[in-house]
Amino acid sequence: MFRWLRNSLLTGIVVALPVTVTVWLIYTFVNFVDRVIKPLIPEQYNPETYLPFALPGLGVVVAVVGLTLLGALAANFFGRSLIGIGERLLNSVPLVRNVYGAVKQIAETVFSSRQQSFQEVVLVEFPTKGSYAVGFVTADARGEIQDDVSEDAIGVFVPTTPNPTSGFLLYTPRSRVMPLSMSVEEAAKMIISFGLVTPEGLARADMPDEVKKAIKKSEKPD
């Protein structure tokens, strides 16, 4: 009886935890956007002024509509002219132009439909010899970095666990990384879960020979 109760409790936690976390994240995001956007809406145009109750998600709707209109405006000649004038003004301010330029370049890279932000998943020897970390290939090395590396170099982002938004950017010769068959999404799940969620494609038989040798060596008793 005790074993049945314990198993039922653990099963309930496994079922409820993902749903609860997902709902909480959505609720937190909607509340945050509402707190930021709602005060910007003129009182005469705010539906909550005429209703006896609040409208959750109103700020999200207004933000989506506003960003869509901004994108449509930026797509025509008049909008591009205004944006060009604004950029020239920002670029004339020493500190602001550095921040604006960096944020703009990151946004264009992340949201560009012409290329993927992360191209493939690889194993890279990091942080010490014989240790391997999962990384994402970001782009080919260019300019001074490529000139200083004798081989064809690539940029590899090695995220931290369980927060993949921070990490290390490595530039290494392509010949020194080992491609993995898993997708970027599968690798992200594995990193966030401390390696507990392992993709089926990461069976030991599919690992590169160098990694299998390192694992066998580490499993040998001292």
Automatic annotation (TrEMBL):
Native organism: Hyphobacterium lacteum
Domain of life of the organism encoding this protein: Bacteria
Pfam families: DUF502
Keywords, comma-separated and alphabetical: Membrane, Transmembrane, Transmembrane helix
Segments passing through the bilayer: 9-30, 50-78
Protein name according to UniProt: DUF502 domain-containing protein
